[in-house]
Amino acid sequence: MSKRILTAIGFGLWLLSTQAFAELRIGVAVAQYDNYIAYLVRAMQERAAEVPGGAKLNLEDAGGDVVRQISQVESFISQGVDAIIVNPADTAATGKITERVVAAGIPLVYLNSRPEVERFPKGVVFVGTDEHAIGEMQMRALAERMGGKGNLAILLGRLAHDDTRKRTEGVKRVLAEFPEIRVVEEQSGDWQRDQGMNLMNNWLLSGRDIDAVAANNDEMGIGAAMALRQADSTLPVAGIDGTPDGLAAIDREQLALSVLRDPAAMGARALDAAVGLVQGEALYGDIWIDVHLVTRENSQQYQR
What we know:
Belongs to the bacterial solute-binding protein 2 family. With 304 residues, the protein is of the alpha/beta class. It is built from ten helices and twelve strands.
C-alpha cells in the first residue's frame, strides 16, 4: 500500500475521531423556570460535563409563552445546534416545533411534559413520567391515610398544562373507588408555593371543612402545609415531584407523602437521549422514568 494511501486513511480516521468528540451544542427551551425545572437543568448540565468532548447547553426560558418558545426554537435552528431539548410551554401546541426541528434535520427531545400526540416522527423522543399513574399513586396512598372517607381539596397546577389534567384524572380514577371521599375544593395554584398557601388560607378562613389536600406538585403542597401549620392543623397534604424541598418537607412532617419524579434521572436521561440521537442511536417514542411513592418511612433512601 502506498504512503499516499496510508496518509489518506490516517487523515480520515483522525477526522472521524475529532468529529466524534467535538463539543456538542444543545439548545434547551424550558416552559417556565421554576423550582423543579431548576433541578432538571442542573442534572442536564452535570451530565453534559461528562460527555466526551463536552456539550454546551444554551438555555432559554419561555416564561410560559408558547409564541416565545417557538421563536427560541427557531433561533436554535438558525444557530445550527446539534440537538434541541424542549420542555413544552403548551403540550397541545408542539406541532410547529416538531415540524420545524424535524425539517431542519436536528434531533429533538421533549422533556418532562409529553406533547399531546399519539406518536413521534423519527428523530423525536419524549423523556418523562406517566402522569396518570402518578395521580393514581398519590391518591391511593392519601385515601388510605384518610381511612377511605372525608373531604378532599385538590390543588391544581397550571390549567393550560397537560400534566395538571392527567394527574387530576389519575386522582379522580381512584376517587371513583372511594364514594365516601368528597372533593369540596378544586382550584389552581399555578404550580407555585405562595399560591398554594394563599388558597389554603382562603379555604381555612371560609370555614371549609377539609380532611386532606392532594396537590399536583410539591411546591403547592408545601405552601398549603405552611398555611395549615400556622392554623395549628395537621391534616395530611400529598405532593408530587419528590424534589429536595419536597423530601425535606416530608421529613419535617409538613407533607404526608409525595410521588418521586426524579429530576436528576430525568434531566440526565434527556441529555443522554439528545447525545444518542446525534450519534445515530435508534431511539424512538417514549422513554419512561420510574416513579416511587415517598413517605416519612422511606424518604431517606431518596435524599439527594
